[in-house]
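Q: Structure tokens for this one, please.
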Amino acid sequence: MTKRAWYISGVLAFCTTVGILAFCLRPTEPQINGKKLSDLIDELRPKKPDGSKDFWQRNARRREEAQRSIQSTGATAVPALHRMLRYHAGVFTKQIFPALSKVKLLKFNQMISRAEAREYFQNWNGIAGASALGPAAAPLSEDLARYLTDKNWTHRVNSADALGNIGPGARRVVPQMLATAAKSGDVEFRKKILLAVTAIGADPTSANPVLTNFLADVNGRTRAAAMICFVAINSNAAPVVPFLVGQLRDGDVYVRSSALNQLTRLGTNASTALPAVINLLQDGDPSVRRLAASCKSAISATSMTAGATNSERPTMEFNFSGVLISVMLSEYQDLRGQPVQYQRNLGAAKLFRVQTAVPVTRTEAIWLLEDALRTQGNIIIVTNADGTLYAKESGQRR
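A: Here is the predicted structure, written as tokens:
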């Protein structure tokens, strides 16, 4: 064998050895009940309807089971999620391949598309997995915070949700979250960040100046989210009842409704707000009048709805990840204490999302359900002359 042949054989043997070692020492994903972490995260991804009647129920059940399985992994899932969050297509795909694709004889466009798609899904999996993992994903807070400025809107919004699900463990990135929200012009994104900060908590000294600016925002939903966040982080530092009374005079229905919900939670501790709440019983919006009645009942320690007590305790019992309209209306019935009449066509296969950043009371749960029905399904709950409840499409005549 010639010297050159020996040299080539040695190089091939070396490359083969390195390849075998890399394969054997490659990072592995934790497995739960025979499924890899990435497979479980894939179960969280929305699926296209297959036409079956029970598709939405099976879809919701599949997602809930996958989320529970991911949560059971605890900290063992963090390294794998960290790799997903840090995954990127590389310099060849982002710089060299686009340059070479300009040469007509060389077609790299398909390679670029496949690499970019893989990067997107790897990053999506990392964010979704961290969100499902919850508090155990606290070591990933900095990685998630980087996605708040990502060029992809889905990544930005989902990363805000994931940080909120982590809770107090993500508190070290709250200043970065508030700074990002202050620079963003996206109303929905700002709202997501503010609700996430509500769940995480923040130092009032540093957060209040930013929140004060949001409280003067031109968008009502931004002001409402800022108000909820302000009350949450200042509840032990300053009296919030006078502040909430001021929010009751806001011209936006969403802000007034949110302020009433916060006062309802405070109950008898918000007794000084009672005159302002009573004034809203004559509000021009029916949903505000209904919330004002609930708030008045909570403050004055009288029961309005069946089964509700004058000292409602917040709970996460109403933290739904997605429910069918029939399930939602049955839940509303259980909370309100009265059956809900509705046309058969309203029971179509629709899945509504209802999530809470903080624990809610029974009265607030009713408001959440009504808000989801109205905004996601164009369905409203009305009270008949005999006191019974009726669900109808907005604009439909009884």
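A few notes: Strands lie at 31-32, 35-36, 323-324, 340-342, 351-352, 379-383, 389-393. Confidence is low (pLDDT under 50) at residues 302-312.
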